[in-house]
């Protein structure tokens, strides 16, 4: 499968630069320009993961929790597989982060990219 450039850019910003605002920007622009894309809800889920990370890093735990819960709702197993992601592992990581966000004083930490490949 050929991936949209926006998805490749998203991955670069997310994993290499840890620029979650840019992740959101590039993926949202693509998503809005391609509303008919069958992976649309997955792109929204990826946007929400980036926004959650941005909120967590800035100390907005309530916003981080809200975005992760919505991301889990929008990501589909079939869509994640088409994007080269392991749905079981990604959901596990997101649920672990969600659980950690309910721990008072939890410090911010990045996700590691190798944990989500099928």
Tell me what portion of residues adopts beta-strand conformation.
Answer: under 5%
Uncertain runs: none
Q: How many structural domains can be distinguished in the coordinates? A: 1
| SS elements, strand count | 0
- What would the principal axes of the Cα set say about the shape? globular
> Gyration radius, to the nearest Å?
13 Å
Could you tell me the CATH topology label.
Hyaluronidase domain-like
Cα end-to-end separation: 15 Å
* Structure classification: mainly alpha
**CATH architectural arrangement:** Orthogonal Bundle
Helix amount = 55-70%
Describe this protein with a few key phrases:
mainly alpha, Hyaluronidase domain-like, 6 helices
Architecture overview:
- The chain is globular and about 40 Å long.
- 68% of the residues lie in helices and 0% in strands.
- The chain has one domain: TTHA0068-like (Hyaluronidase domain-like, Orthogonal Bundle), CATH 1.10.3450.10.
- With 118 residues, it is mainly α.
